[in-house]
Amino acid sequence: MGAETRWGMWRGSSKIRNMGCWLACIVLLALPAAAQLQVGDYLHMNLNGTVGFNYGGGMNQGVSDHSMGFTGNADLTGNYYSPNFLNFNVDPYYNREQTNSAFGSLSNSTGVSSNVNLFNGTHFPGSVSYNKSYNGISAFGVPGSDLGLAQHSNTQSFAVGWSAFVPDWPSLNASYTIGNSSNDIVGESGNDSENDKTLNLLSNYRWDGYTFSGQFLHRNTNTDFAEGLQPGESPTKTFSSSNSYGATAQHALPLNGNFGVSWSRLAYNYHFEDSTSGKNAGNSDTINGTAAFHPTSKIGVSFIAVYNDSLLGSIPQQVLTSGTPVNLTSAGTFRSELVGSDFFYQILNSLGIHANINHQNQSFLGHSYSATQFGGSAEFNFSHSILKGLSFGLGVVDTAQQETNTGLGFVGNLNYSRKFYGWDVGGNFSYSQNVQTALLVYTSSSYSYLASLRKRFGDHAYAMTGYSGSHSGITANSGTTSAAERVWAGLIYRGNTLNAYYNKSNGLAIFTSTGLVTIPVTLPTQALSGNPFTSYSSKGWGISLGATPVRRLTVSASYGKADGSTIQPGLSIYTNDTLINATMQYRLRKIFVNAGYTRLDQSASSLGGKPLMVTSYYIGFSRWFNFF
Amino acid sequence: MVQLFLRNAEGRFLQVGVRIAWVILLLATPSWAHKVKEKTVEPPPPDLLLEGGRKLHYERSFSSEKEVEGKRGFFTKLVDVVIGEPDHPHLVRPYSIAVDSKGRAIVSDPGANGIHIFDFENHKYKFIERRDKDRDAMRTPQCVALDAQDNIYVTDSEAGKVFVFDPSGKFRRAIGSLKGGEGYFKRPTGIAIDSAAQRIYITDTLRDKVFVLGMDGTVLQSFGKRGGGEVEFNLPTELLVHEQNLFVVDAMNFRVQFLDRSGAFQSEMGRLGDTSGTMFRPKGIAMDSEGHLYVVDGMWGIVQVFDQHGRLLYYFGGRGTANGEFQLPAGLFIDHEDRIFVVDSFNRRVQVYKYSGLPKRAQAGQP
């Protein structure tokens, strides 16, 4: 189980006496404290929390372990002088059972979260926060899988924020965040870690009808990828930093119009090391100018001018919203200039037409493109109710280039919802096909479907089942399709639930330190260089039960199984998870009796890897106190 | 928690140090307690001294089962210390109140989806709910009234029915429950019972009507329509039956209409305004032993008291959270001892006043 010890507490009978003394102390401390504590004239505090004692044990690869010890958590809130002047909360927890995690209590977590707010309601509010969590359990994401891979994680973050809102002066928001995390997949050697520093400055100003804004964002991210999932390969280290600057100005124009210009610049620097090393650095500049008029509610006309330079730098952030860097090498510069105009007229409520013209120059991967596009489109939106519950909508966009027709884009959806003999029947099918022009011109499409059944039995029982799926259709590159399908069923009777599911998925993804991230179908693979793609497929099924057999007693149990494979050229990794988890809680006034059992079989390695089997259980009680 | 983090150390000094820390903590307990600022008991508002020696005295407020409890014995207190006090049901969003012949306060609570019964004399509390029933589930209990046998009648504005419970809280029947399960009324709110005449009066707020029912639930008569004239209503809400009169709170006409029992117009009182004697959000009404009409104004958080001619005598309350102040007050009830119960809805409590009027002899003009 890695470096963590599940019940890292002390043993020995002589300690029992000490525990009793501690409990006595706590009770004595709690007795006189029934209201808010005031220290001095200005500091007011409230404290409540739970103190508990647990016995636990486990089996890790055939080696048993037993232990016992304290658990607890607290919530300290307070203010100095007044809540607006300074308020704070500190929430520490010690050996907390992770009953809220899908992986149950494979480990107990210790940490603290805290926050201080200053000068609320004034022109200069600020805040400071600090969070730390040790020995938590989280999931290494696998697209389409409900389980993922269990991983230990330690996280820490510190943030400072401050704002200035002085009347008639530009506003300013400044924040600085430092965070780091380290994860290791249970049963695998090696450790993934990431640390991140972010500085964000934002200012807004209104003057004589103009609205100005400016922003600066600096981000520095360093990661270490373990070799655990990729045996034979060296650990990967990445160092990336980026500075982005932006400024906008807007002003109203006659005829319900507005005018705006914006400029943004992204400067990035990326360095990776594994068996080889590489560097990548570049800038991306965008200048954008728009003017739009709406003389009537049915007519609109707009003009646009855009200049882009080295757009490549912004694409990875579109892929990975978490900001985790990926392996990039420079694929050359990209540059584009575009000027155009669009005219819109709404003929009917469900019919609108667009006419547009633009001229565009693009330079990418050593090729230059130049085109003048004449576009015309009509948008139909129908929403008729036919056959009591059937409705559909259709939108069509046709883009024609000077040289040739680039294809028809449309969006369609079909919905059905009706009640048959007490059964709520629902269905949905949608298809979308679009012409992408962000990088070159190409067509992409995707479709999804859903069917569901639901019935109510009496006032307290429900049954439901459904089937859904989503598929990519036309993609920018052959062999990059993805698909996901899911079947589920559930029963609810009063407060008791029974659910089951089966799912399977496949597609393309990128390895990151937090898991596999699916690639959007709209992204051309030329945008990412090197060999970052991983083909994945996974399937799994599970069943879960939650019940309240008697008042104040809740029990839950779940079983889940997932198999998956990720294939990179030259490397195949197979994952196999089986997870059994059960928890129980009984509450008697302020006393809680808790118990839990978790069994995890997990393997995540190339063929022949040894699976890991971990079993853990615990039972204990805790008492809630309102200390003061 | 020093010991927890130093668990691996086994030196003698450590053990001694830990024990010293215990002693310090235990000795420090009284000083710790000294720093605790006990919840101060808020002073009650001063008595309101009125003309002719009349007086309005604030008695108390109640909000949860805890206030009903009797004195707790040593063993009970010990159990409380060890495993904590039990969860006392609390008023959530109380709306209406009635007090039965045994002095029990019956409070409807749409927020808790039920009815609270506070029996202060016998130190008992009961909560009535019908949330999970297959048939005639109670969804939004609104106003409550009692008949001569202390049976409890509750309007349900969402279900469109009136629920009847016996004095012990046992469900008896639902008035207005149609065959398909839906309610006969669109939005029943106010309810008043004339046990002598065996009549139940119910306002259907969305229909702008007052329905007159027999005790078996049969609709005998209805009157009213949308408008601002006589026996016309704009969202009527609460009702009060007193002697031969039926008082109807005509909420969005900002008045109280006085009708006779057959629904014929007698007079009216009130007008829209934000000054004393006017109404903005009239809610509960009640009448004391001297025939003064009490009207709650939810917006201003006050109770205004009028004489039989509609003249303002005085008012009490005001917006706030202190004793004697209200936030969104709603229901009102005056018992036969002139105890005034005001449902202070947003403050989640009921405040109780005692009105001391003139002795009967003085009322009759005798020395």
General description of the model:
The complex is a heterodimer of chains A (628) and B (367). With 628 residues, chain A is mainly beta. Chain A has 2 helices and 30 strands. Chain A is globular and about 85 Å long. Chain A has a 28-stranded antiparallel beta barrel. Helix content of chain A is 4%, strand content 68%. By secondary structure, chain B is mainly beta. Chain B has 2 domains: 2-35; 48-363, Neuraminidase, CATH 2.120.10. Helices cover 11% and strands 40% of the residues of chain B. Chain B is built from 4 helices and 27 strands. In chain B, a hairpin with a 4-residue loop joins strand 8 (152-156) and strand 9. The longest helix of chain B has 24 residues, at 12-35. Chains A and B meet through helix 1 and strand 1 of A and helix 2 of B.
List the helices and strands and how they pair.
The complex is a heterodimer of chains A (628) and B (367).
Chain A: H1 14-30, E1 37-39, E2 43-60, E3 63-80, E4 86-96, E5 109-118, E6 126-140, E7 149-164, E8 171-185, E9 192-207, E10 210-225, E11 236-253, E12 257-273, E13 277-296, E14 299-309, H2 315-319, E15 334-348, E16 351-364, E17 367-380, E18 390-401, E19 405-420, E20 423-436, E21 442-457, E22 461-472, E23 483-493, E24 496-512, E25 515-518, E26 533-547, E27 553-568, E28 571-588, E29 591-605, E30 612-626
Antiparallel strand pairs in A: 1-2, 2-3, 2-30, 3-4, 4-5, 5-6, 6-7, 7-8, 8-9, 9-10, 10-11, 11-12, 12-13, 13-14, 14-15, 15-16, 16-17, 17-18, 18-19, 19-20, 20-21, 21-22, 22-23, 23-24, 24-25, 24-26, 26-27, 27-28, 28-29, 29-30
Chain B: H1 2-5, H2 12-35, E1 48-49, E2 55-62, H3 74-83, E3 96-99, E4 105-109, E5 114-119, E6 124-128, E7 141-146, E8 152-156, E9 161-165, E10 171-175, E11 188-194, E12 199-204, E13 209-214, E14 219-223, E15 225-226, E16 232-233, E17 236-242, E18 245-250, E19 255-260, E20 265-269, E21 282-287, E22 293-297, E23 302-306, E24 312-317, E25 329-334, E26 339-344, E27 349-356, H4 360-363
